[in-house]
């Protein structure tokens, strides 16, 4: 039995509220259970220096957690003058994931920065950030199209992510914190809306996992991604 009483392949409740930040070109508040992440997309009219003159655009991401996103207060990283390694790793993952669904030539020589701020954490924050970050990115691209700053849609597919793991000896979908902290195996799956794999992060926190267990986790992830993509479609409709 899972702590929440959910079935092994059951997602937490998914909610995506759009246009929650007045000044951002795209924004949403995504809630997956008790994990809540604010995502904004900001359009910059110049690409990073390494892309100048190439005709290609760029999508990048920044990630952070508010001090009381967890059960104890975390010191702001700005106060220490540097980002933690975990933060850097997560924001690079978000950027890589979102770029997998973008035609950078269609975007033109500009950059979209997706900021993901965790308001409340209960497991799966990076996955919620990717899923919500795509919605903010989609809304920003819509504004570029509406203003005719670009002529073709740079968004090629949905991008969403979900966590899966081995908890209590069973493969489970969408880990909340109490499961994540005790899981024997922990994994994050990033997929496109059409079901193609973008990135898989898996590690054995306890006993090693089998090929069969890995495939069961992938099956759970594919099921979860379908629900997340459905929520994305509802949010932007």
TrEMBL record:
Any one Pfam family match given in the protein's UniProt record, by short name: RNase_PH_C
GO term, biological process aspect, one: tRNA processing
Keywords in alphabetical order: Nucleotidyltransferase, RNA-binding, rRNA processing, Transferase, tRNA processing, tRNA-binding
Molecular function per GO: 3'-5'-RNA exonuclease activity; tRNA binding; tRNA nucleotidyltransferase activity
Catalyzed reactions: tRNA(n+1) + phosphate = tRNA(n) + a ribonucleoside 5'-diphosphate
Ranges for domain Exoribonuclease phosphorolytic: 10-140, 159-223
Alphabetical list of InterPro entries matching this protein: ExoRNase_PH_dom1, ExoRNase_PH_dom2, ExoRNase_PH_dom2_sf, PNPase/RNase_PH_dom_sf, Ribosomal_Su5_D2-typ_SF, RNase_PH, RNase_PH_bac-type, RNase_PH_CS
EC nos: 2.7.7.56
Entry-linked SUPFAM superfamilies: Ribonuclease PH domain 2-like, Ribosomal protein S5 domain 2-like
Listed HAMAP family: RNase_PH
Stated role: Phosphorolytic 3'-5' exoribonuclease that plays an important role in tRNA 3'-end maturation. Removes nucleotide residues following the 3'-CCA terminus of tRNAs; can also add nucleotides to the ends of RNA molecules by using nucleoside diphosphates as substrates, but this may not be physiologically important. Probably plays a role in initiation of 16S rRNA degradation (leading to ribosome degradation) during starvation.
Subunit structure comment from the entry: Homohexameric ring arranged as a trimer of dimers.
UniProt protein name: Ribonuclease PH
Upper lineage: Bacteria, Pseudomonadati, Pseudomonadota, Alphaproteobacteria, Rhodobacterales
Gene (name only): rph
């Amino acid at each position: 039995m899972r702590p929440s009483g959910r079935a092994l392949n059951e997602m937490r409740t998914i909610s995506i509220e759009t246009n929650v930040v007045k000044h951002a070109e795209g924004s949403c508040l995504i809630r997956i259970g008790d994990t809540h992440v604010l995502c904004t997309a900001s359009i910059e009219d110049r690409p990073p220096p390494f892309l100048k003159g190439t005709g290609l655009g760029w999508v990048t991401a920044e990630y952070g957690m508010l001090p009381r996103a967890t059960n104890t207060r975390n010191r702001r990283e700005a106060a220490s003058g540097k980002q933690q390694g975990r933060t850097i790793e997560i924001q690079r993952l978000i950027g890589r994931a979102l770029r997998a669904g973008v035609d950078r030539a269609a975007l033109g020589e500009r950059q979209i920065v997706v900021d993901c701020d965790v308001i409340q954490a209960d497991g799966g924050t990076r996955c919620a950030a990717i899923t919500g970050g795509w919605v903010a990115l989609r809304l920003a691209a819509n504004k570029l199209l509406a203003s005719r700053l670009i002529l073709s849609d740079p968004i090629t597919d949905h991008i969403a992510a979900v966590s899966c793991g081995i908890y209590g000896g069973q493969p489970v979908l969408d880990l909340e914190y109490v499961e994540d902290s005790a899981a024997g195996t922990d994994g994050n799956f990033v997929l496109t809306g059409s079901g193609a794999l973008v990135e898989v992060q898996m590690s054995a926190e306890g006993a090693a996992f089998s090929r069969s267990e890995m495939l069961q986790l992938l099956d759970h992830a594919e099921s979860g991604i379908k629900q997340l993509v459905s929520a994305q479609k509802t949010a932007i409709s």
